[in-house]
Amino acid sequence: MGFIDKIAWIQVADGAVLSTRSVGRDVFYLPGGKREPGESDVDTLVREVREELSVTIVAGSAAHLGTFEAQAHGHPDGTIVRMACYTADFDGVLRPDNEIEEIVWLTGADRDRVSPVDQLVFDELLRAGLLRQRP
């Protein structure tokens, strides 16, 4: 069994959470990615969000929302993604970059359009009253 160490950015506005779809993918993922050797969670968050969405995370504003584990989407059974999720302020204008084809704002009604680990985050956001159930 393998582990994928991922960091994700949770940006909620008006009861919807920011999500991305990479080129050639059929599901949406919370913005973020895998840690590079020697990077802290916040270093990874800043780098990945800049690469994917062309904005700058305000590192000092990052706050841990939770860590979630689930079967990794598109990987062999037993491959688990462990995703540490952070909220953070940002500077700049959100726009897709590099492998990101689409940026969307999803509600609880879109839960089935995201990866298994993202579904756990959606459940937490719904429980906390941060994500609305309907579009």
TrEMBL record:
Q: Which residue ranges does the record assign to the Nudix hydrolase domain?
A: 1-130
Q: Which InterPro entries match?
A: NUDIX_hydrolase-like_dom_sf, NUDIX_hydrolase_dom
Would you tell me the protein name for this molecule?
8-oxo-dGTP pyrophosphatase MutT, NUDIX family
Q: Which organism is it from?
A: Actinoplanes philippinensis
